[in-house]
Amino acid sequence: CFNSGSSCEKCDFETDLCKALHELNLQPGWIRRNGQSGMGPPYSDHNGNDSAYFLSLSPEMRSSATLRTSVFLPNDKEHVCQITFHYWISQMSGTLMVGLQKHSEDAVTNIWKVSGGLQNQWKANTITVNSTEKYEVIFSGMVETQRQGETVAIDDITFSEGC
């Protein structure tokens, strides 16, 4: 994954979802597609490959769509959970948020958020999660306008050993 010595889970969406993301956790608002799908941007994955797969918001989507990980165990001092992912947000109205849901809490705590602006390109981000209890990580994407080409996409999510 990052180096040969670390065991980690990588979701590149090439064949399906990885263990950390179950099909059940993929709400209908997200679709697995590639740049050749005829659905507008992005036209390639973060490596510039137009036949490689990623997730993007479905054009029919009217509100936010969430993607939940499976349940992770509490972190210890030596192993923090690092999640690295690539994201793509259209210029005007896209927003991507990452939240943390601890098992003792109903509410989701937002730990990272980015919204439109002059993006329209793939960017990478790494977040570190520290939790003393079991938790799930939730990615939510939304677009405010239903204009052509307005979308949020996500690719290559990797979860470090501590997750």
TrEMBL record:
Residues 9-163 form the MAM domain. SMART domains: MAM (SM00137). It holds the Pfam family MAM. One of its GO terms (cellular component) is membrane. This is MALR1 protein. It comes from Herpetotheres cachinnans. The lineage of its organism: Eukaryota, Metazoa, Chordata, Craniata, Vertebrata.
